[in-house]
Amino acid sequence: MTPPPREPVTVAVVGAGPRAVGLLERLAANRAELLGTRPLDVHLVDPYPPGPGRIWRTGQSPLLTLNTAAGNVTLFTDGSVTCDGPPHPGPTLAEWARVLATSFPSRDTQGRYLEWCYRQAVDRLGPDARVRSHRTRARALHGDRIGRQRLYLDGRAEPLPADVVVLALGHLDAVPDAEQVVLGDVAARHDLTYLPPGSPAEADLSVLRPGEPVLVRGLGLTFLDLMLLVTEGRGGEFRTDRSGRLRYQATGREPRLLVGSRRGMPHLAKFGYPPAGTPPPLPRFLDAAALAVGTRPLHFRQAVWPLLAKEIGWGYYHRLFTDHPDRTALGLPEFAKRYATLDWYSPQRVALLRRAVPDRRDALDTDRLDRPLRGVRCRTLADLQPYVRHRLGHAARRRADPRHSADLGALAAVVSAWGQVDALASAGRLTAGSVRADVHGWLPGFFSHLAGGPPGYRLDQLRALAAARVVSFLGEDTWVRPDRAGRAFRAGSASLAETVTARALVEARLPTPTPDRLTDPLLRSLYAAGDLVAEVRDCGGEPVPTGRLRVRAADARIIDHTGDPHPCRFALGPYTDAGHAMAFAPPRVNAPTFRQNDAAARAILRHLASRHC
């Protein structure tokens, strides 16, 4: 007698972008071992197509590209990943698209790659698995710790039942903060234009009129998207003249962008050459032993920054001495021995560097690295422009020149130090003020400035636009506020004596979601019910919220108001406290993303097997 067919177990994944695809890939890799032949239903809930999701959806402007080289993008595990599940190697974006590993393909190409990765993951789940896409939003989730979960979707009266629910939402939107509300109200009352934080690819940029001055806050990657869409996207052309210099041919349809930020300069470009030479041994000075003194919380600027700066210097000079010994006056062993004994602020350290590095252009200036416009004061906006363009050109040439490969060592030291500083904050070893101002405030921006910049040709385009007077720079510590009559926006900076006005203001940055400002209805309802809780760090007895969702690090199970992990609810993504793992990662680096995906997938499959054995 033929046994009756078994009821499938069900997983609902809210979000269908690359993080969800990574989870599907790991479910497929681990299914045979942990679930056997039990039928499996997977529901993906997202208004955007599965694979690329919202951010990488196909059909975007071909002007918008990745800021990561194609060879550093993959959704497949390889032998470097230390996880319990079997690896399943696959092509990087460069291999799939058959482009140079150092190229920066369009987001449309990336979207098509993610669509292909999604289909591969679905096929590998096997014939007894069904994957269904629901092109809508989830609005509520009900269910206790024992029974099935009920996920309510827009446009569907009956809930979607599931044994496991996974939140893989990716980038989140946020309601305006207090300042943004004021600026939006002023714009509405006086017929001004105000675009709050968000993706330029999703904004109506037609409100920025030709020739109109537009104030822009932010010089990061979001600004570069805006810049391209309102210049080349309106018919302008970049051309190389006979001298090899890039020029911009305007059409007259461009607005005039007046842009500033805290630093007053864009992020440094990606390195224009492959890493080679000898990487520095890290960490060297900023480690647990160096900071395990006393019981009182440490002040970042007083106790941590001197060691962090010394660590950055060690990474930089180690590469300078090993990659370019002809530009040093001491051997590395002698320099390392002396450098290790000297405090960062000591005159002896300064004297050592003057002796060991004869050319001042080879010396590392951490203050100038962070604030390249510090000390620059100009009377007018026009006076400031040549200086900023010069600094842009200098920075772009340096990042493209392997003679400055010591910069790779400085970057490696910052990457190493990031984890050390975050561990200090998590352990309550830093003051609350230090965590707010430095760990959550300054340090991420400094890291992005060194590591999160665009390809070099984007900065060449920015310089060409500045030379064509389509873009003007406002300087560091830029501020914006309504004028006294409220009929325009006024801006200035620490670099300028002059102030400028405009009837349009764009926030060229992505929103900063916190639990009290989320727009997603599902997350809002879960936070309100206590089914989600935000991470709060104990900093010397003072609580400091991080704004991130608490999950159990071992398997990404959501922790609720009871303090316990929920047996059948999981969350993956940068909005959790499991770490800022990206949805995709470079190959052969044992990426945290793949380790997290594998641990979550195995926990999900074990739960399904135990519930339905």
Characterise the protein shown here.
The chain has 613 residues and is α/β, with parallel strands linked by helices. It has three domains: 227 residues, FAD/NAD(P)-binding domain; 105 residues, no CATH class; 164 residues, no CATH class. Helix content is 35%, strand content 16%. The chain is built from 16 helices and 21 strands. The strands form six sheets. The protein has a six-stranded mixed β-sheet with strand order 3-2-1-7-21-20, with helices on one face. The chain has a five-stranded parallel β-sheet with strand order 8-17-9-12-13. The protein has a three-stranded antiparallel β-sheet with strand order 4-5-6. A hairpin with a 5-residue loop joins strand 20 and strand 21. Helix 1 packs parallel to helix 3 and helix 1 crosses helix 16. The longest helix is centred in the middle third of the chain and has 24 residues. The chain is globular, with a radius of gyration of 26 Å. The mean pLDDT is 93.
Would you spell out the secondary-structure blueprint of this structure?
Elements: E1 9-14, H1 18-34, E2 40-45, H2 93-97, H3 107-124, E3 129-134, E4 138-142, E5 149-153, E6 160-162, E7 164-167, H4 178-189, E8 193-195, E9 213-217, H5 221-229, E10 237-240, E11 246-249, E12 256-260, H6 288-291, H7 300-323, H8 332-340, H9 347-356, H10 366-370, H11 381-399, H12 406-426, H13 432-451, H14 456-467, E13 471-473, E14 479-482, E15 489-492, E16 500-502, E17 504-507, H15 521-528, E18 534-539, E19 542-549, E20 557-559, E21 565-571, H16 592-611
Parallel strand pairs: 1-2, 1-7, 2-3, 7-21, 8-17, 9-12, 9-17, 12-13
Antiparallel strand pairs: 4-5, 5-6, 10-11, 14-15, 15-16, 18-19, 20-21
Helix pairs in contact: 1-3, 1-16, 7-12, 11-14, 12-13
